[in-house]
Design goal:
Blueprint: H1 2-9, H2 19-35, H3 42-56, H4 60-76, H5 80-90, H6 93-108, H7 115-127, H8 132-145
Helix pairs in contact: 2-3, 2-4, 2-5, 2-6, 3-4, 3-6, 6-7, 6-8
Protein name: Tellurite resistance protein TerB
Pfam families: TerB
Organism: Tritonibacter horizontis
Length: about 150
C-alpha cells in the first residue's frame, strides 16, 4: 500500500498531492517527529490526533485511523531529507508553515524540549523551505497553544 504512495511522492517531478495523500504525508512527518526521541508517548499520539481533527475537520475515529496510517507510512518512508523534500515539492508554502507549527505542537506535547526533536524540526523546516521568520512564528504559536 505505501510503496505506490512513496513512489508517487518521491518521483523526480511529483505533482501537487491530492488532499488525502497530502494529509497522509504530513501525518507521517508528525509521527516521525514524535518517534525521534525514541519515546512515542500517548500524550504525543493524543496531540497528533487533536492536530488532525482540527486541521482536517475529522471526527476522533477518523483522526485515529489517519494517525495509524501515518505510523505505517513513517515506518516505510525513506530518510527525513528525501521525505520532507518530496513534501516540499508537493505541498503549498502556507500549508508547510502549518506543518512546522504542528511539529512544534507535537514536540511540546509532553512538556519537555528534546534536543533530537528540536534538531528534526529545524531540519524539517529548512527542507520544507520554510524561512526562519515563519518557522519562529510557528514555534511561538505552538508554544501559546501548549
Amino acid at each position: 500500500m505505501f510503496k505506490e504512495f512513496l513512489d508517487k511522492l518521491l518521483a523526480p517531478a511529483p505533482a501537487i498531492l491530492p488532499d488525502e495523500d497530502a494529509r497522509l504525508a504530513l501525518t507521517a512527518l508528525l509521527v516521525r517527529l514524535a518517534r525521534s526521541d525514541n519515546a512515542y508517548a500517548d500524550v504525543e499520539r493524543d496531540r497528533i490526533d487533536r492536530i488532525l481533527r482540527a486541521r482536517f475537520d475529522l471526527d476522533p475515529g477518523a483522526a485515529q485511523i489517519l494517525r495509524e496510517q501515518g505510523e505505517g507510512l513513517e515506518a516505510a518512508a525513506p530518510d527525513t531529507v528525501r521525505f520532507t523534500r518530496a513534501i516540499k515539492d508537493a505541498v503549498p508554502y502556507q500549508d508547510r508553515i502549518g506543518v512546522v507549527e504542528a511539529l512544534w505542537q507535537v514536540a511540546l506535547a509532553d512538556g519537555e524540549r528534546d534536543d533530537d526533536e528540536d534538531a528534526l524540526i529545524r531540519l524539517a523546516a529548512n527542507l520544507l523551505g520554510v524561512n526562519d521568520v515563519d518557522s519562529a512564528m510557528a514555534r511561538q504559536r505552538a508554544e501559546t497553544r501548549s
